[in-house]
Amino acid sequence: MLPRFRASPRTLQSRLVLLSLTCCFALACGPSESEPREPVAAVAATEAATQGGATVIQYDCIPNYANWGGVTEAYFKKTGVRVPPDMKGSSAAMAALEAEVASPKADTAYYSGAIGFQAAQKGLHAPYKPAGFEKIPADLKDPEGRWWTVHIGHIALLVNTQALAGRPVPRSFQDLLDPQYEGLVVYDDPRIQGTAFTFVYGINAILGGDESMDVGFEYLKKLDTNILKYAKENSYNELLRGEIPIWINADGNGLKARHVDGAPIEVVIPQEGTVMMPLVMGLVEGAPHRAEAERYLDWLLGEEAQRLFAESFFRPVIDVELPAELAAKFPPAEAYSKAIVPNLAEVAERADAVKKRWEDEVESR
Amino acid sequence: MTSSALPAVRVRGASLPSSRWLCSPLSVILLALLVWPGMRLIAESMASDDGGWTLAHYQDLWRLSRLRFALIASILLSIAVAILSTGLCLAPAWLLVRRSFRGKRVLRAIYTLPLSFAGVIVGFLVALMLGRVGFVPILSERLTGIPWLSGAAYGFAGVLIGYLYFEIPRATLTLEAALERVDFRLADVARSLGASRLQAFFWVVLPSLAPALLSTAAVTFSVSLGSFGVVLILDARSFSVLPLEIFMAYLAFPSDRPAAAAMSVTLLAIALLINYGCRLAFEGGGNRGAAVMARA
């Protein structure tokens, strides 16, 4: 008695097709689930071939952060050079550069201030002074050009008023602790995203805490009960959709959501104050497309790119004349009167310890 | 090599040695891909700061509560997924093998479609369905006034659903292939000897299916143990799984790479053990199946 052993050629065939489809999919999405870089780079390569252009790889080039999507698109239209999106946050970008130090894959990287300072300290950047470097205020750049600021943001509460479903808009960090906001508040995972790290570090000083940072961590632990999640990927689209009603992030992203994408977003500079966050870049040591990268970094500090950043509400680091209509959309200057200006060297030195403490005391509980 | 292989063709027939030759480049590549990175991983997991050898990173897996919980959560989640997906997919696999009906191909397509999705995409789908303002809570609020399952995506339930969705095609396809090999005439014999439909299923069909069920559970367990795209997107609040901890160790703190390597080796060892254990049980199960057949 023989067991039946039958697989019709048709099912076998369809399974093979399915399997190969899966393989293609896995190849496209597999190794870089968090950074859809390769496929885009491949597209860029074919387009570049027809235009004689090239590619510059920028780690942390999140299209929905500081309008990098629009800025890199404008650069592509102007020069034919593609700067593909990259979804790594500041810390992940630094970690990747560190892992690839023997054979760098990236040309440049973008960070929130302290993390970029830390990356420069670790020797991951080559000194370079892009055109316009001298116009950057002295405290917003490394004298040798190992890092420099491209634009400035501030920590704010980005509130989707529609998603609050009748609850009042919170005005302060204290308000966020109210039980009525349970499960409505999100800030990103500070171990990956630099903006969230700036908040986690800065909240202590905003609330008047001392060196020990206990005041800040006490607050974060209380806030934990109202947190929906510590997002590891950028949450911009979820804010627009109302999945996330309150996102603690950079003011510019909320202003863009409101004025450019037309979402019901209110940007609240909390009553207790905020932290000023320089957003910095550096040229990667051993960059594979160095000449192309230098031209790109020069352009980013020029008037055209700086205005593009301003149009997405990140403050230009270089004085450019803004149209009155655009300037009026920024929150009034007095809202920022209590903004703390961090000492990047100090923050960088304590960054790893603060991230670890957050992991132990806030995330693990 | 070639000269010694050629006589074998004449002696034993052409098919076996030629397929062996076709396989050998693939085998070499697979072995190289397994051995070289595997050795490096093991070496990295035992590297101590002073350049010597240490097992501290393995001890940390149990000593540090966050890693211990992640390890336990990974194993429990994978067991749950293995049992549920094997149990749930038996019915559709049965339907696809034993019945012919209109729309069978559509049904098979529906069941196998998730195979082509990356974990991250499944994560997004779960968030869209069971998020704070997901499809299910919004619909239930319209119907009943209460947003059921609002935000369930960010808890154990959401992750479990995501993982299950991910494993359904694998379980269905494996079980379908196994069911095609079952000799249903045995069940007919049992029925003619007076067994009820249920008795025939539980005493004749199920025992001969046991090895297939076990290997399906082993495959879904192993895949679940290693996947993390779903959790990465859902950012589950109450628990974490080991693959996510590996990801964080690599990306957030570069100094934690030996710890990440130790976690990877541990996951690999668990998956190998489970599969080897199932293989052993499979052989036992096969014998039992044969015994059942003999009895029948």
Task: Walk me through the structure.
The complex is a heterodimer of chains A (365) and B (296). Chain A contains 13 helices and ten strands. Chain A is of the alpha/beta class and 365 residues long. In chain A, strands 1, 2, 3, 4, 5, 6, 7, 8, 9 and 10 form a ten-stranded mixed beta sheet that branches. In chain A, helix 5 crosses helix 13. The N and C termini of chain A lie far apart (62 Å). The model of chain A is unreliable at 1-51 (pLDDT under 50). By secondary structure, chain B is an all-alpha fold. Chain B has helices at residues 2-12, 15-45, 56-63, 65-98, 104-112, 119-130, 135-144, 156-181, 185-192, 197-226, 229-234, 242-251, 257-295. Residues 1-14 and 289-296 of chain B have low confidence and may be disordered. The A-B interface holds A 1, 3-7, 14-15, 18, 21-22, 25-26, 29-30, 33-34, 88, 91-92, 94-96, 98-99, 163, 183-184, 189, 191-192, 227-233, 241-245, 352, 355-356, 359-360, 364 and B 65-66, 108, 112, 115-121, 127, 131-134, 151, 154, 173, 177, 180-183, 229, 232-237, 248, 250-255, 257, 293.
